[in-house]
Amino acid sequence: MKLSDMILQATAHDTASANADRILELAHTQTAERIPRRRSVRIIAVIAAALCLLTVTLYAAGVLSGFAAGFTAPISSGGVQVLSQASDNPDVEWTITESWYDRYNLHIGGSVTTPDILDANLSYRVTGMFHTEDDGETYYLDGPLYPNGTVTVPFVMSAPTVTDGEGGKFRPGWEKEKIKVDLTIEQIYLEPENIDGQWNIADSLVYPGNWSYTLSLTQQEHSDTLTLTGPFSGTTEEAVTAEQVKLSPFTLEIDGDHLMRFNNTRYNIWLKMKDGTYALKGRGIFRDAGGNYIAFDDSDDDRIAVSFVQPIDVPQAESIIIADKHGFGGEGLADHTEAGFVCYPLADPDALNVITDIDGEVWEMWKVLLEIPIG
Predict the structure, then answer these.
(1) CB neighbours of residue 372 within 10 Å
(2) pLDDT at 40 over 90
């Protein structure tokens, strides 16, 4: 196959998520058919040329993925239909192609074309506000842009969960399969590295404007959510029980009994991944290397509802852990293993900011109250 034919065949399969695997597969196939003497140079040249053309093609089509740029795990986008739009700054063009929402979260992604190339060494953010047809309240959202050396860059905007007037922490109607959102994007500004004293966002504006959209959003594929029906019961005296569990990339919901401590504080909620790491575990030997943490918590004794800053790769999750007694100590903690505690020595406690007055080896320990297997 000629190089030009290979590239055309590869770009014919382009999607918003940039199907580079297809290009690499074709490049490997061609080099396998005829192995030149300078094989490594040939492979590098073929892949570089194909990826370069693919990148240009994706930019031109306006299908850059903010979700792929901003999220550490893959998620399925819901449908986005632009019903109307207006702008007082036509020099900046927004292409909204992605959405993900549930009753706690809203994420919108796509690409934006600016008059100038954004500096990859600086941090750019976009702000906006929105309301839905079922709710007269105005909510805010913001997020980063991802400079890439061209005038068209991906972006993702996220709305933090808010408290409504009745004290509940949700947005009414967001369990519907389709919602209509009035979105106004307000500005692109530079995020300062250090804020010393009072900071006025107006001093950091890069592109002011008002870009208004009416969007029809369709909920993402149902495969994004895993539902488990119990009961799942722990074996400890706390009698933690889960009747139903829902896990999506951004939200974990558990309905059951005795899901809180006696003083109404929530137990530790972690996800044990298939690679042996623990997502959402903020410190210790299994800390979440991706920087994920719980951004929203509306739990009580018979219900856990938490949302995450970064999405979870649900197919890679092995089990849900409800834990207690998390702490650090000396090697004597190992004696608690037979009592149902998980105990591990820390290879480098200083690197994990674990503060102890222990001379010698430092151990980490926690008690598993309930482990719910996934899949």
Answers:
(1) 18
(2) no
